[in-house]
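Table S2 (continued). Query chain:
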Amino acid sequence: MLTNLSLTDTALDDNTSVGMRVATTGSIDGMMVTGGSMDGNVQGFVAYQANDGLSTVTDVTFTGTSFSENLRKGIYVEKLDDATFDGITVENSGTDGAYASNNGIDINLKFADYGDIRILNSTLTGSGVDGIGTGEAIYVAARGYPGDSSSYTVKPASITGLVIQNTLIAAAGALALTVGNVDGVDLLGNTDVTGDVLVFLSGEIELSGNGIDGDVTFSYDDVDAVEQPVLVGNTVTGEVIAIDARDIVAAEGIDRIILQDGGTDPNPDATGNSTANTI
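Corresponding output:
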């Protein structure tokens, strides 16, 4: 295990594969990356997880680092715990039109329990192109959720605690943000989000003070519903939608969504209202 690694103003750029990779069976406990860049690679920062789920990347902080111009992913991690990305830049990463899973940031956690992941004060632009599959600027999920591949359901992962705050997200494709199978989702003060937001199979959800130019969808597989999302002071130009196992779709006002401030909608039954909804 590598401990207490520190990188300052280090350029890990223009490699034929990745900028920096943590070995599949390797672990890091304590890493501080300040400034620097992982630009112009196929993937910027990468950490794969072994099937036994025994390795980890924990207690890590990236501050002011660039993960830009990477062909398929700026960041791709399958193991990550107690991690902060503060003031990072992800520009034009995940732009391969012949690739199925382009992302600016792909936190795709597998085979173990993880928690406390924070993306703060950051900027993502032009990332997550829809190639031969749907891309996302940011994707965060614990794999092994119901309906996922049997490769992951045999040893499901979990995430407890995700915060995305004060971050500009301008999607290159349809989806700005996808969050799946996370317990404790706080999207706070992200006032400039362009693209749709999808939250699926997650609980303890709060959206507060966000500005979203797109739809917001909550998707569940429980007929009796899960905990209600809490929405406070958000502006959404599209619709707020909930989908459950019966494939029932409803616009804002359904009983699973608490409209904390009595928001207004000029046409609650329409999609793509000309006036933004405040919820």
